[in-house]
Structure formats: C-alpha cells, structure tokens
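Pair request: fold both.
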Amino acid sequence: MTVKLGDVVGDPVDRLAEPLVKVLGPRTAGALVKLGLRTTGELLRHYPRRYTEPGKLTDLSSLKVGEHVTVMAEVRQATVRPMRSRGGATLQAVVTDGTQTLNLAFFAKRTGALNGHESKLRAGRVGLFTGIVGIYQGKRQLAHPDYKIIGVDVDDEAEGLIEAGRPIPIYPASASLASWRIQASVRTVLDPLAEADVPDPLPEAVRTRLRLGTLHQALHDVHEPFDDAQWRRGRDRLQYEEAFVLQAALARRRAEAAGQEATARPRRRAGLLDDFDARLPFTLTGGQREVGDELAADLARARPMQRLLQGEVGSGKTVVALRAMLQVVDAGGQAALMAPTEVLAAQHIRTLRALLGPLAEAGFLGAADRSTRVALLTGSQGAAARRENLLDAASGRAGIVVGTHALLSENVQFADLGLVVVDEQHRFGVEQRDTLRAKGTRTPHLLVMTATPIPRTVAMTVFGDLETSTLTQVPAGRSGVVTHVVPADKPAWMDRTWRRVREEVDAFHRVFVVCPRIDPDDAPDVSDADDDGADLLALDLDGSAEGERVRRPLRAVLEVAEELRGLPALAGVDIGILHGRMAADDKERTMAQFAAGQIQVLVSTTVIEVGVDVAEATGMVVLDADRFGISQLHQLRGRVGRGSAPGLCLLVSGAVDAGDASPSATRLRTLAETTDGFVLAAVDLELRREGDVLGAAQSGGASSLRLLRVTRDADLIARARTDATAVVDADPTLARSPALRAAIDQQLAGEREEFLDRS
C-alpha cells in the first residue's frame, strides 16, 4: 500500500528526507533509485528537462538509433495480426509528426492480450511514447514502448480536459520508468506539502527584494504548470537559487580564509630573490612582473593568500611561482610545490634547479653564499633518497620541496611551511590541498596554478573563493606553433606526415607522437591525463551523430612505436616510448635521453601533457586526435615550439570529414585556427557537458549543477555573487539563515565540495 506523504508527521526538514520507498512503495521507489533518487527532496529536485506544448508534435526526424526518447506524436494506424511463423500475435502501429513516421511494435502470445492497446491507439489520437529507437526492416521503431494517450489516460473526463491544455513536463527518464510515471510520483510527493514543509534556502529579504516566490511555489511552478509563463517563472527562481547557494558557499570560504592567521612573509632585500633576479638569463614580461607584485603583496600580509594563477601555455607561470617561493624562503619559511604526476614533479625539479643554479646547492661545494636546497618527494623514490629528502624538509635545510601526492603522507614534516603551490589544481581535491596546508604551524599561503585558461564565468563559479591572476603574454624568443588537421584515411597525407617528422629530426629537433592508449589490447589510457581524460572514457557521449559511426581501434604506444621503426622515412631515427606504466626511474631516464637527443622521436601517452619542457622539441603528431578534448590538445601542443625554432602540431583523425559539424570536427578545426587558450576554453565550454567542465562530483548520476549553465548565466551568477556575499558578510555563520546553511551542507557536502576547486 502506498503511504501518503500527508500522513507523515515530523520536522519540516525530515519531510524532504523521507525515503521514497516509504512514500511511494518499493516498486516505484526501486525504479527511481536507478535515477539516483532516494528521498522526496531528491525527487522534487529532479526537474523536467523540457516541456511539450499541448498539440505540438515532436520532430521525428531528429531521433537517433539507440537513443532513449520520449516523443509526442499522432497515431496514424494500429493493426493486430497473428504471427504465423512462430505463433502469437503482434500489434503494428504507426505514429507521425505530420511528416515523418515512427513504427511501434507490441508482441503477445495471443491476440486478445493486444486488444487494450488497439482500443487506445486509435487514429487521430495524440500521445507520449517512450522507448529506445531501433531499426527493423530499414525503418525506425520503438519495440514495446510505454505510452500515455493525452486526455484518455486519466481518472475522469474533466481531468482529461484540463490535462490536455497544460504544458507536459518531460523528465530525464529511463527504460524502466517513463517520464509521465515520474510526473505522477512527483505529484504524489508534492501535493500534500505545505510551505512550512519546504525550507527555503533564499532568505526572505532577498526574495522580497527580487520579487521571487518561495521554494514551495517554485516547485509547483516547474512540476505542475498550467501555462508556459508559470514553469518559466519557477525555473528562473530555481536557477537563481542554485547560483545563490553556490556563491554563498564560496563567500563563506572567503570569509573563513579572511579570519585565519598566517605568517607574513614580506620581501627581504639582498636575499635569494634578488640573487635569482640578477642571474635570470631573460627579461621578465610585463605580465610576470605585475603578477609577481600581486603575489608579493599577498605574501606580506598576515592572512593567508588564496590566489589562482592561470596562464597560457608557455607564459612563464613556473618563474612567477618560483619567485614567490623564494620570497617565503627569504622570510624564513618553506614552500611546497605539489604536482599531479611523477613526470611533472621531476620536470619541476630539473627546471627549478636549472633556474637557481648554485642558489639551490646549500651545503654542497660550489654553492652560492646565500642558497637553499630543493628536495623531491615521490612515491617511488628509493629509501635512501627519501630519508635524505624527508630530513631536509623536516630540518628546514630544503627551502623548496617538490612532490606528488607523497607530500601528503603523515611522515612528511616541515620546519615552517609558509607557502603551498598546487600545480594543475583540477587534478586534486580540496581535501588533498587542505591536508598539505595543515602541515604548517599556521595556515600557509596558497597559490593554485592552472595552465588551462578559464573563461570568466567558470572562474567566478568554480574558483570564486580565490583571487585570480592571469598571464597572457608569452616570453620573447618563442616562435609559436602551427597546427594542421591530417585525415588518417588518406595514405598520401600520412606519408607526408612521417616525412615531415623526419625533416624535424634532420634539423636536430625532437618530435612527440601521442597515442590515446598504451597497448592495442587496452582500453584508452587516461592514467596520466587530467579531467579531459573523460573525453577518452566517454568517447561518443557528446550527443553527436558520431555514436552511430563504426570506430577503428584506437592507436597504442607499443604498436605505433613498432610501426614507426619499420617506416623507410624514419630509418635510422632513434624512437623511444613513454607511458604511465613505466617505473619512475625509467620515465626520468627516457625524458633525459629525449632532451639530450639520444631519443629523437618519443611515442607517448598524455603523460607528457603538462610541464614537460624540452626546448628542442618542435614537432608533435597526435593520433586519434578526435578522441581528446580541446584543453588537453592545447596542453599537448604546448610541449612544442618552446625554444627559438617554430613548432608544428599535426592532429591526425579518421573521423573528421569536410563540412563535418560534429563536436570532434569543431574541436580540431578550432585548434587549427587559433592558439588563444581563452578562445579555446570558451569553445570547449560550449561543446562539452557542463559537469565535465566543472569537474562536478557525480552523485547518482546527477550533476552538481541542475539548471545553472555557466556559458549562459554569467549575469545571473554575478548578481547572485553580490547578493550572497552581502548575506554572508552580515551573518558569517548563517545563524539567521538555517535553511541556506543546510542547503550548502547538503548540496556541497563531501565529494561535491571538490567541484569548487576544479576547473
């Protein structure tokens, strides 16, 4: 028996925490659980994806094979026939949008079992039909679809007349639960609720000033609208609420940070930083000097710096970060630089030691009068080296400690941790960052770096608790990179690709060849990739027609390296491999050989995506380039052309045809047309699923953002930011807004909070 929600007595918050199995019964609740919906509150937040206007039919030409759909169409005919070959009966129906048709097929052991369908599926009637689109005898078909005939499948005629004139909510559904069954469940849950049962996260003063309805009213508006104006009103209110709760969470974090104490690390004259600036072999760009001044001022304050440093590939973020670290070391503190991979950590060590020279050799012969040490801590280090580096960090001898997640280990101690620098922050969660910061006796300053340019709306939404600095200039002396798209199915183009690689090698340059996986028998390799690895995992889940194509097996490092060794065009060329399964020592040895020219062509996975800096690397060939995201391809391309010689990037794809408008084709063409990372980031944001871009933690398959779209709602986000900041400034603990505090805790708890720190 179904339990009515009105029979439940308790605290108002508990009404929304009521298990659906108790309210709707185990059968319906079980189907809803598959959609990630377990409580009444979660069901009410499962908003309609769209609305069907009464009498407006779905364009059936847009249906794709294999897609689960809900369409509104008119019945053209329905006929029951016996099946002579195998017994039983079938009902074949045809529905139409007025131009296109779609077949429906029902099967039964006897004709009588289909009479109910036949009586309802009368010509001229309009209904909603849901199922998975298949192909039978060359025509699109729904087999055993669930359906609802408008104005017929109701309890009484009066109700039918009302329903026939209302917008019909279409919910994200599943094969086991049709949209209208979700609608019925929502009504069962929503109708008994009173205002007091639905705590509103928006403070009353904010609602009054903006003339917004209550949450209770908004839920009725979106789930039970009588006209378009009503559901639009409810949706707008819920969008604003989503932005407001998010911005309130960020405002609380900013307030908490402002209330913490840090050790001021003002710049000291005649110290390591001055010595470093004096030995720099190049002139800092105007942007590097400006950002450096911002960081210096932040570090000199007695509250923790919280700053995001974003910049174009090759814009010189490492030098800016190093100067900040040296300011802290001059002031008696230490700096920790956390990198996501051992390859990148090792690259940072090489870069920092090369830039510092004798300034990084404290205690060794040849060290400068004023010097420090740069230590490395990774998970695969040998015991002796690890002990020495741990001691250097704990004693303070190492002013700068570079490491991977190994820095988070309990046995890693610092004498006086003053600055935490997190490189490629989107690969780390908030808990990891905070674990490292907790190793300071007082809250250390924080510098977050990302080489993926972030559009303003994303920065405002995702990194709203950090001050943002941006480097747009590229240091002088770099010649840039030219990018071309190469069709993989044209042998002449591929022959020219490998001859072009040989030309780079003959000019004493190096070339990367990037593959999406390691071994031909493997799934796509994303062990070394950032969040864009989701493009490799999801492959064709971008909603394009690409899902209908037959895909060739993805290219793999091991097989490609063997192929290249057998090509006449590359005869005598030293070809090496690099991937995530190799031991750390082997990776470092391979990169050193590549940098020295002992390896001239390096076949690799995306392990070389960030941080790898080989000035002689001028060429890159990316195989199966259509399987990578824009930001990842931009990062890969940034590994070449970093010296005085121009770079060349060839994006090889067998899935892009002339005039192709698919997301893959758009990505590759955009990359070929521009090297502006901010333009690319904006295109990326438009093309990719928003949850991927935000790195939103998934809970039951639902994105942390339900209605808000950062590409579309910039003004709304900015307005909510101002309003939420004012509320938090006036009431930092939100003692006067318990529903808002509860919404923040509920919606952004645990893993979901991580999306606030990801790009």
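--- second member of the pair ---
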Amino acid sequence: MSVGEGLTIRGASALGLPLPASGYARQAYGNVTPDFGPATWLRVAPDGAVTVFAGKVEYGQGIRWGLAMAAAEELGLSPGAVCVVLGDTGRVPWDIGTFGSQSTRHTGVQVRRAAAAAREALLDLAAARLDLPPDQLICHGGHVASQADQSRGLTFAELLAGQEVVREIAAETPLKAASEFSVMGTRTRRVDAVERVTGQAVYAQDVIRPGMLYARVLRPPAYGAQMVSLDDSLARRMPGVVGVVNEGDLIAVLAETDQQADAAHELLASEWTERAGNISQWELPGVLAEAAHNPVTTQEAGDVEAALARARHRLEATYYIPYVPAAPMEPRAAVAEWDGSSLTVWAGTQRPFGIRGELAQFFGMDEAQVRVVAPEIGGGFGSKSLYRPAIEAARLARAAGRPVRVAYTRGEEMAWSTFRPAALITIRSGFDGDGRITAWDYQAVHTTTDRPMIGQRGSETPYAVADARVVVASGVAPLRPGSYRSLGCAVNHFAREVHIDEIAAALGIDPVALRLRNLPDARYRRVLEVAAEAFGWRTAAAPSGKGVGVAIGLDVGSYAAECVAIDVQGKEIAVGRVSSAIDCGLVFNPEGVRAQMEGAIIIGLGPALFEAAEFENGRLLNGSFARYRVPRINQTPAISVALVGSEANPSTGAGEPGIVPIAPAIANALFDRTSKRVRELPLQRQL
C-alpha cells in the first residue's frame, strides 16, 4: 500500500504460522508460502480517521470487533471510531488464514503494537507543538492533550495536516498495562452489529458485477464418479443461456439469471460410471479397526504394558465418532472478474492469501496479478479454508469473457465441502483403588489419510500418568476430511473424557473429584473448580439419577471445563443448562469470549446429540436441512461462562475450546441419568 499524507504504521507480515516445523499447516491448508515483507497495519488519515488492516476474515467470530478494541485501547478511542479492513489481499498484510483461534493471539497483539506505535508518533508530534514532553501528554478521543489540562491539545487531524509520517512497529513499543485499560476487558457494543441484523452486511452471494453471468456447475452423482457422456443441446437452447462451458473436469451452464441457469442445468443429460468399493457409513468402524496405517506416537512415557499388568484395576473401551459436515448457514459462493491479465475474485474463504496463491498457480500468473477479497462470511467453522468455487468462477469468467458467479446450493455445500473426520479410539487404562491413574494406552484411528496430523490434535492426556502411550493412526477416508471447529481435538477429548468418567464410576468416586486427583496443571484445576462451583455441583458417584455430567478440555492454548444438566424423554435428550469456565489468558473482549464460548457449546450440541453424515455407496443421504438436523433455538440451554484467565498469561484462542468438553459432558450426564454408557456419537441414535 502506498503512503501519503497522514500517519502510516508498518510492520512485519506473516504472523502466527501454526507449527511450521511440523508441516501441519501445509498438510491442513495447502499453500502456506508466507510474505515476510513489511506491510501497513494502521493508518491515521489526514482527517484523523483511524483504519486498521489485517489479513483475517470476519465470519461471525467478532474479530473485527476485537481488533477495533485493541487499536482503540492504545489510541484512547472508542471501538466505533476505528475502521477495520479485513481479508482483502490487495490492501492487508499477508496472513495464513483465519482458523485455529489464532486471530487475537497473534494478529490482535500486532494491532495493539501498531496502535501503540501510532500513539508514540502522535505524542512526539504534539510534544513539539505544545512544548510539553511526551510523557506529560495523553491520547484521548482523537486528540493529544496535556495530562494536566486536557483543554490544551490538538486533534489528530491538526497534528497530521500537510505531513507524511511513516513509523515502523518496534518490538519494544510499550503497550498499556492491564491496570490502565479503559476499553479492553470492558463490555462494549459489537462494531458491526447493526449491519448484520439489518441486512447491510455484504456476503459473497451479494456481490454483483456489471455484466455478470450466473453459473450452475454439473456435479457427479457420487464421490469418485467419472463422466461417460454429455448431451447439452437442450440446455443450450434455454432462454437466457449464454453457453455451456465444458473444460473436462468443469462443466457449467452460464446464464443471465440464477433461475435460468438452474432450469438449463436440469436439462443436461449425462451418464456416469461410479467408483467400485465405496464404503458406506455402517461399514466404516470395521474398516477403521482393520486398516489403520501411518501410526504416530504423540506421547510416550514408561512401560505401559507392565503398568497395565500390575494395575489393581483395568478398563478397556472403544469409542466411535462419525463424520460431521460443517453445515454453515451460508453456502459457498464466489464471483470472478478478469481485467486484461489481472484477476479479482470475491470469495467467502477463510484463506484469501492461500486462495490467491492457488489461483496464480492454476493460471500460471504472478500473485501480484491476483486479488482475492473476502466479504462477510456466514459461518465457516474451518470448512471454508478450502474453497473450490473460487477457481471454478475464475475459469468460467475467463471462458465467458464476463464476470461469473458460482454459488453452491445447500445440497452442494453439504456434499462437496469437507467433513469433520470420523474416528475409532480404543483406550486401555489401569488405576488403583483411590482413583490414581497408573497406566494409559490410547490408540486412535482418524479418517485423515491425506492429512494425518489433524487427528493428532488434543490426543495427549493431561492427567498425571507415569506410564502412558498415545498413538494416532490414519484410516481410509470415504468422505473428504477437513477442518471443523477444534479439528480432531474435540473428537479425541470425547473418548478420553468419557473414559475418565468410566473410571470414576467403576470406583464409585465423584467424577469431579477423580479429575482433580489426577490433574497436575493449576490452570486445568482452576477452570474445573470454577465451572463446578458455578454449576452447584454436588459430590456424588455416578449414576446418581440426576443427569449431570462434567468434562474438561484444552485447545489452542486455552483451558475449558463444562458441567451440564440434562433430561431424557424417550429418545430425546434435552440439555437444560451448561456452566462453563475458560482460561484464555489476557482477555481483549470479554463479551466476545463469552459469545464464542456460547456459540461453540451450541454448535457442539449437534454432533453430541444428532448430527452425523449419512452416506451409502458414495452418496450423501442427508444433504439438506430437511434431512440434516442442527440445533434449534428452542434446544439452546441456559449457558453461563466464567472467565478465569490471568492477565499475566498471553491471550490465547477463544473460538474453539468451548466445543471440546460439551459432547463428553453430555454423554457422562446421560450415564448419570440412565445408567446407560454410550460410547458412540451422536448420542440420541444410541437410545
């Protein structure tokens, strides 16, 4: 970005690459080639307006709100006075993508540094004009004024008039101490709330370009099917149809309206051969048990077999978690427009720079010729990291010589997106009569053939066990695995936290007490104790008949615990209330953290109770909301969220930890209520 009059704050790009040495980022998200060059993070315009630039995207998690608060804090502004530009590769710093609850942890800190650097620059400018040292000045409400007499000051606009100032973000730039906060850590109004509730927010489906055509892509009838023949003669003659593009692996009708494209698509006569040996849903657990490969040991200590042999008590159980589609409210959409040799794509992706790289590679272009703009996104949950319609729209726009929009139907979104991987997990444990765990053998197989590291997340046990072994292997993947809120972490925690409850029940020990007996980490203990106290936990061994359950979790550096109360009516489980606690270190935005926890708990109700992909012979059977059940508002429990982190610890993620404990907590409550132990999700299908 070029600079001009005003104040520009620049700093390094490529922040927060997740585990680059392990190769996890490349396996999970494809192109991760970073741009380490300097980039503009903040601008104070000549009129005093403050704009923050960040490569993250907004898909409901409130990152625009949080970044506005971070900048506002350091500059003495209200969050509403800060404009935040996100997800536009032509304007913002390079970013690997918005996933893994990294936004506050890395980008939020950099925005604070940028705003602090801007504050220091403004104080320096004002010191000369006001004949006062910088340490006697304060930034407040768009002014720099004397601390002793705030009527003596200058506006940002007055300080910057006719000036061009560029500052670099220094690592030693002083940030405000938590004791000085007036914005961060307080309750504020979401900066984009009005646009979202009034329909002013623009999503990829809303982007309309002059002369734009609407595409409907022909999809295979089953996974792995290959086309044998195509007759598009009737489709070409339909009203409004501009043409049918046939580029081998991409066949699409292009028309002047959505309705005309849909009508012509129905007249495409195609024949296909389907892949032999497609696995159906009921076959998957057996296949995973028989065909694990590429095992990776994520935790190992002592001699597990010897410890199991000498254990006073032993327990072995197997847990199964099925595939789950992300099912976001907004189906994918992309609009592509060529201008000579330059390409612009509007796409609701979580990885604008990654998609830019993929587009450049596909068309043999320099990345500087490609711009990707991520408008507002109606939910992603990790699944919109991979974004097929971006390349489809660009290919079709090049073929047509006009802008083209590709928009998924609900069925396409469900079938051709990615799925939270299924898993089969077997645990063998040994323990003494007091509930001390003495042996732990954890063997997991996740359906992550092409991305094996997804299943390793959250597999290690947090409990103090001298002799422990955790092995995670890959299994066949009949559906495409991909990101989902907390990836494999929530899946691994389900098996472990249910097994811990089974140990407690076998010994007649209260499940909260047993966890505390084996948890060495003070932060883990704290969230568990706070959640239990808020819930009003009454010490008792399960099954008590009350229908209460508990579980803990750790993801993206944040600790969480949840206690739940349920009722069971026939084959329906009603979750009445959830008491949760989270430790995510220094909290930028308390309301944002609470909203993230509430949202994660609610989305977690679905896979816990009734959500699962149904598929047979390569076909998804429940690819519509008429057949795929998601949590409704009348199933939302009363939720309390306690924030127990210390400002001494750095900020960590809040978007994913809430989903980690909810399924095992409900499963444990189901046992407490009914005496029936269910080791497979979704729980209601097992009643």
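Observation on the second member. The two ends are 59 Å apart (CA to CA).
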